Amino acid sequence: AKNGGRNRYSYFTPDLQLAAQARLQVALDLRLALAERQFELYYQPIVNLRTGGISRAEALLRWRHPQRGLLSPVDFLPFAESSGLIVEIGDWAFRQAAAQVRQWQGGLDPGFQVSVNLSPVQLRGDAALCQGWLEHVAALGLPPRSIVIELAEGILLDEAAPVVERLRALRAMGLQVALDDFGTGYSSLAHLKRFDIDFLKIDRSFVQDLVNDSGDLALCEAIIVMAHKLGLQVVAEGVETAAQCALLMAAGCDFAQGYVFAKPMPAAALDALARQGVAA
Ligand code: C2E
Ligand code: CA
Ligand code: CA
Ligand code: CA
Q1: Which of 73, 115, 155, 279 is the least crowded, having the fewest Cβ atoms under 10 Å away?
Q2: pLDDT band at 189 (very low <50, low <70, confident <90, very high)
């Protein structure tokens, strides 16, 4: 601002220049990472609260960065989205998860499901992408319901119709859909009305203080009752303690996911865990 008006580039403060350079560098690194296969999927078990069994897992993206180690999506997802690279990365993730669930269906449980996170950016683009996924699922001989699409609710309602349409098309072909981070969006109830979904995932922020905050408990109970009336199953996210788990079970919650059971882990580790089963 000090140099304001001196020349036409003056609004690029040094800091903004740095930020822009960093963004560009991350985009270049992400492209390289795709080419060099530095992405991995970790899997977190989703536990059936009635049986204690694991018949579902959520695939979570990791970047094994050659210098910076194992990175979580918070470190790179915004760059992957703004650069558009999430489309290619997400396509890889979908296919990888589909291949993995096929393996688990053979070795563990023929009804095993894997959920895959999608960013709205991925559904806004080329319709051929979704078509490709359906063909991939068919080519693997997977029942379509083996895949659950997780979509965070935050931005959805403002999105153009294509996102809604693509989602509907995938679900029409038999894939299942989960509304992620429920309760944190701008218009959670409107989302429920507009989207055909199978699962509702209660956001971690409602689970965190469940034991001490009677308001949060009331919200969770109400969400579960409402979801069941709408024919949806409920997954509680970020369950970290046995006490939280007990309250959720008493409230009739169907599934839970969180550190109390297991952190996200490589596929082989989940395989071993699912064989032995987890006890809450
Ligand atoms: P999410 O879909 O809400 O995933 C749950 C996040 O909570 C994961 O973080 C998981 O590791 C973490 N978590 C699970 N249990 C607990 C717990 O008990 N306590 C706490 N504190 N955290 C728990 P992660 O793996 O870092 O992923 C962050 C977000 O990145 C995900 O949030 C999802 O929105 C996004 N993401 C992950 N994988 C993909 C992907 O393949 N594609 C896209 N588009 N987004 C992805
Ligand atoms: Ca998710
Ligand atoms: Ca979530
Ligand atoms: Ca609270």
Answers
A1: 279
A2: confident
Question: If you average pLDDT over each of 24-28, 62-66, 192-196, which comes out highest?
Answer: 62-66
41 Cα nearest atom in ligand 1? 41
Q: How many A from CA of 213 to the centre of ligand 4?
A: 6
Instruction: Kindly state the tokens that stand for 77.
Output: 């997802």
Report which residue type is found at 131.
Q
Side-chain half-sphere CA neighbours of 184 within 13 A: 18
Local confidence band at 47 (pLDDT 50, 70, 90 cut-offs): very high
Does the CB atom of residue 85 touch ligand 1 within 6 A?
no
What is the structure's pLDDT at 7? 47
In the predicted structure, residue 106 carries a pLDDT above the cut 80: yes
All residues at 6 or more sequence positions from 165 whose CB lies less than 8 Å from its CB, including other chains: none
Q: Exposed, middle or buried by CB within 10 Å (0-12, 13-18, 19+), for 196? A: exposed
Whether the CB-CB separation of 244 and 280 falls below 8 Å is answered with no
Residues 6+ apart with CB under 8 A from 149: 115, 116, 118, 167, 170, 171, 175, 176, 177, 178
Q: Which two tokens stand for residue 59?
A: 């695939």
Q: Is the dihedral of CA 156, 161, 167, 172 positive or negative?
A: positive
Burial of 49 (0-12, 13-18, 19+ CB in 10 A): buried
For the whole prediction, is pTM greater than 0.90? yes
Kindly state if the Cβ of 185 falls inside 6 Å of ligand 1: no
Q: Does residue 120 have its Cβ closer than 6 Å to ligand 1?
A: no
